[in-house]
């Protein structure tokens, strides 16, 4: 409601209020996934966040290097408790207390990490899980909340549950008809009521890309935020006197309507994940990712929400960086959601607050400038090639070779060389990792072609901004299995 002339705030109070609004409009949040074989060191990543105006970050698990790097950084943290711990934490409040002590209290008190939320589970009600985590989620939330109270952290750290958008639906396609999925209506109302009563928030993951990628008939322009002055998509949804011109607004407001239908409309709803991948699929490309994320950032900076929630909520962009060790079960695009490449370099230009462009990570050090490729005198029709490529891609990320992807246009020699190099780099260019039964050779000439970048991995043991426990230990552990089999390269039947 507006101020009357008799209730106007003092100038100093008004100035503070305006400054607060300005800060909120400029604030950005991101998901920082750590499933990388050669992770960008934690301190370098934190500086990347700060340099680009991100003041909130979500971690999917209590990664020690990331949490220590976030200490005293001024960045607020949402910390994930993984699905595989839900049952344990749900059964025993002592297990929840132990998890909170080791992963929340420890980092808050010993490292000064500003943890604001514990995200209990990750999309636990996803249809594809077939109810696997449904019984454990609410008891786990209750036990984590009790553990936070016991630790004296309940005022600072609140609970949430990041949910997939498939927990609600609209049978007639109008957001105002939104309701929870019939099979979990009771569970959803109980969960949200608990979050509301305990001061928590609800986090929802919305992916227009997945909607479009799963349905060849999905209206493409409806997946993006309309440009100012552009005509609305022909797929726009008329809902009473409101015209929904993009799937994000319609999706978010369908949830809001469902909450209101059950008397839960006061819960704060944040967007836990949203973004667009750049590779690994024909629909995942730099042009579309830039278009979608620029529209998203414009909305965030402007503070423009949806028809039912006019103020833009906190939005955790998915993701900050690519993750080359992430599961590809949903699709090869899963390793390519980053706004930044694996090394913190921007994939494309983006304007942030005040028209400021995104900037790259500083102080990144790389392995030697060398690549592993198919020998010039080796025939790409050699019978051993198929086995060699299969072996390389078993241990390294070859998703960029997918049809329609950045390296999908390479010829046979290029495909083989790309696979060999990915293995070589992922194995930290160790001696013997470019063997492949004498089919390959190390070169100092960059074999990159067109849109296909032949990567050189990060040297996790050398970088300018350094902590004692950098990502080197994690990278070495992650590649323990690869190192163990490198000696077999000479005798493997390829």
UniProtKB/TrEMBL annotation:
Q: Where is the signal peptide?
A: 1-29
Q: Which residues cross the membrane?
A: 476-493
Q: Provide the alphabetized UniProt keywords.
A: Cell membrane, Disulfide bond, Glycoprotein, Glycosidase, GPI-anchor, Hydrolase, Lipoprotein, Membrane, Plant defense, Signal, Transmembrane, Transmembrane helix
Source species taxonomy: Eukaryota, Viridiplantae, Streptophyta, Embryophyta, Tracheophyta
Identify this protein by name: glucan endo-1,3-beta-D-glucosidase
Classify the source by domain of life.
Eukaryota
The molecular function terms in GO held by this entry are:
glucan endo-1,3-beta-D-glucosidase activity
Respond yes or no to whether keyword Oxidoreductase is given for this record: no
């Amino acid at each position: 409601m507006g101020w009357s002339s008799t209730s106007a705030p003092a100038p100093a109070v008004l100035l503070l209020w305006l400054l607060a609004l300005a800060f909120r409009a400029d604030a950005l949040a991101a998901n920082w996934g750590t499933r990388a074989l050669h992770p960008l060191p934690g301190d370098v990543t934190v500086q990347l966040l700060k340099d680009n105006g991100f003041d909130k970050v979500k971690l999917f698990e209590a990664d020690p290097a990331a949490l220590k790097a976030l200490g005293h950084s001024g960045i607020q943290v949402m910390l994930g408790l993984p699905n595989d711990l839900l049952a344990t934490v749900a059964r025993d409040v002592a297990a929840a207390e132990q998890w909170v002590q080791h992963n929340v209290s420890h980092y808050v008190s010993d490292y000064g990490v500003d943890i604001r939320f514990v995200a209990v589970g990750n999309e636990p009600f996803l249809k594809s899980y077939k109810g696997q985590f449904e019984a454990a989620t609410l008891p786990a939330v209750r036990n984590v909340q009790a553990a936070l109270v016991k630790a004296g952290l309940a005022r600072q750290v609140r609970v949430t549950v990041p949910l997939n958008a498939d927990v609600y639906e609209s049978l007639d396609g109008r957001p105002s008809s939104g309701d929870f999925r019939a099979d979990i209506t009771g569970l959803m109302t109980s969960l949200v009521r608990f979050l509301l009563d305990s001061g928590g928030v609800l986090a929802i993951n919305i992916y227009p890309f997945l909607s479009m990628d799963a349905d060849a008939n999905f209206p493409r322009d409806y997946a993006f935020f309309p440009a100012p002055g552009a005509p609305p998509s022909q797929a726009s949804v008329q809902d009473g006197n409101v015209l929904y011109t993009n799937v994000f607004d319609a999706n978010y407001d369908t949830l809001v309507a469902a909450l209101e239908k059950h008397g839960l409309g006061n819960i704060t709803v944040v967007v836990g994940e949203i973004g667009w991948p750049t590779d690994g699929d024909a629909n995942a490309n730099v042009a579309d990712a830039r278009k979608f994320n620029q529209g998203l950032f414009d909305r965030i900076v402007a503070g423009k929400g949806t028809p039912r929630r006019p103020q833009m909520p906190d939005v955790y962009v998915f993701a900050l960086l690519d993750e080359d060790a992430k599961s590809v079960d949903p699709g090869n695009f899963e390793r390519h959601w980053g706004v930044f490449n694996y090394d913190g370099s921007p994939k494309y230009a983006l304007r942030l607050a005040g028209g400021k462009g995104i900037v790259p990570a500083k102080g990144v050090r790389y392995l030697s400038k060398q690549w592993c490729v198919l020998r010039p005198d080796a025939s790409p029709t050699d019978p051993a090639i198929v086995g060699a490529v299969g072996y390389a891609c078993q241990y390294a990320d070859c998703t960029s070779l997918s049809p329609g992807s950045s390296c999908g246009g390479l010829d046979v020699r290029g495909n083989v060389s790309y696979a060999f190099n990915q293995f070589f780099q992922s194995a930290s260019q160790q001696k013997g990792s470019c063997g492949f039964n004498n089919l390959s050779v190390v070169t100092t000439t960059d074999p990159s072609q067109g849109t296909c970048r032949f990567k050189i991995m990060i040297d996790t043991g050398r970088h300018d901004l350094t902590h004692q426990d950098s990502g080197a230990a994690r990278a070495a552990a992650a590649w323990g299995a690869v190192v163990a089999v490198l000696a077999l390269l000479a005798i493997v039947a390829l």
